[in-house]
Here is the input.
Amino acid sequence: MTEQSTEGTIFHSKRYTSWPSMTEDIDAGNLHAAFILAPLAMQMARQGKTKVKIVHLGHRDGTAIVVPTDSKVESFADLRGTRMAIPHRYANQRILVERMMAEYGFSEDDLKLIDYPPPEMPAALKAGAFESYIVGEPFAAKAEMDGFGRVLYHTKDIWPNFISCVLIVTQDLIDRDPALVQELVSGITASGKWLDEGDERLLSGLVMESASNQDDVDSGKVIVPDEFGRTPRLQAAVIAAQRRYYNQNPELLKFVLTKPPDRVKYTELELARDEFAEIQHWAEKLGFFDSRPVTEDDPFDFLDYCDPRFEQGRLRDLPLQDLASAAAEGAQ
Amino acid sequence: MSPRALLLGTVGFAIFILSWHLATLGNQIGDLPGPAMTVRGLVQIAGEGVLWENVVASVFRVAWGFCLAAGIGIPLGMAFGWYPRLRETFNPLVQSLRPISPIAWLPFAVILFGGIRMSSDLAAIFLLFLSAFFPIVTASTSAVASLDLKYIRSARNFGVDGLAFFRRVVLPASLPQILTGLRLALGIAWVVVVAAEMLGVESGLGYQVMDSRNALRMDFVSAAMVVIAAIGLMLDMAMARVEATALARRGMSRR
Amino acid sequence: MSQALKILLCFAAFLAGVTLLHGWLNLAWFEPSNREQLTVAHLPVT
Here is the structure.
């Protein structure tokens, strides 16, 4: 959201279409900050080709296991002997499934995991390519909104505060410009706090449709349809739906952000040692670090892949319009 | 093009569009898009300006990749054609690199051109260079190697030698085959640019296809496909035109 | 001017034109900015 403000650094959001092209760009030195799958981030840190550090989370939860609406599956145990699509081999979604398989006493053959591109998952579920899938939003909400899928579990029910993607920056950037990293992390913390706790004040650069005029259109202001609503989450849905961010249908993002509101969470984004220890434990167990196994002589610990110091910084203020002008707009 | 050919060509398109329309009747956005949905999608992305950025990005990469390949490939291929020793040394290498799809080079290209300005463009241009380079070298080599000996002998008898010999005899005689090679190479490069942009970069028509897929907008995917086809056709027609004029001037136009 | 030269010039003009257009549309070559910039990558999945 920082592109909305008029001062400070401009953070450009660059939308990739695959994880490898992102990691290759980081290794090539073209890219210094990214939201990336948590275990993939650890693996990059472990391989050490490019030194990267996790500095913050972008959100929590926001992942779901989806089954067809007419499916008889009522709990994870019913998935025995079926196929499930996962977004990536090194995704935390896979760790979640493996963790549940262990919990429910599944053997490796009891659930066949298939690597599948997330955007294709809803259609493939409908076509019967597999019996369930686990994915980050908005591709779970998509099946729900279109009516052919239902959520078996939200992550809040099976691994509360689930971590899907994390913010990594290169060590190079941390050394070169720690203030810039600080600005980025503080901005994300502030945006998250606003998303979960903010009031109906509009972000600067936004205008309600009924209060907008030709000048607003010409100056590129983001216009919020009145019937859409103006809570921070709905403002965010309108912003994120734009082409330069997610390029998604705003109604779908509205669904993701509000049905129910704790489907995705944007507070408590601080890095917690025990949560990463759990992810690392499973990553080791599943062989994510096989190219450089973790041993006593060659340890791998929280501070080898996380740098939580930027979370201590001063919280910054988001550029919000004051309520007076919002009320004036409402009266118009 | 004769009126009859034009008519028949139109009929071909009509049959295709009609069966496409019937097969996708009643589909929603997100399903397989029909022709009407595709046209609406096309109007929308063209209106938003996204399309033009992507078209320019793809054409830019192809133009550079192709020109570099032609600039290096033609002289190299002609040298291979003229000097058998050179050909025997390097042609097996060229022929064994040729069947590797340029897409396979993508990860290396990204790393090779990493950390500099426009690196993703350079990586894509490198792939396009590879895809066009091999057909051009091969065509130029065989064009010169298969020169009719009687041209060479009679030219020598008239005392034509050196640069004049190259310009007046070798070049004109090998031109038709080289031009065909260029046209073929441009076609391949266009196919490759779209594939390369699906994997490596964040602009271009291939990116448009992948990004629309991620955005669950299949109508934008098919709209991008229509644009890919149209531009591919235009590039080919332009090359055919160059080929025809160049040959007509030398009294070698075909049919 | 020979025809070969004309074709070459056409190619060169096309290359230059498409390069400038690409720089303008995709790389913001002609937009001065004195604010610091950083690109943050993501996929359209949470």
Q: What stands out?
A: The longest strand of chain C covers residues 37-42. Chain C has one domain: 3-41. Chain C has a mean pLDDT of 77. Chain C touches chain B through 15 residues (CB under 8 Å).
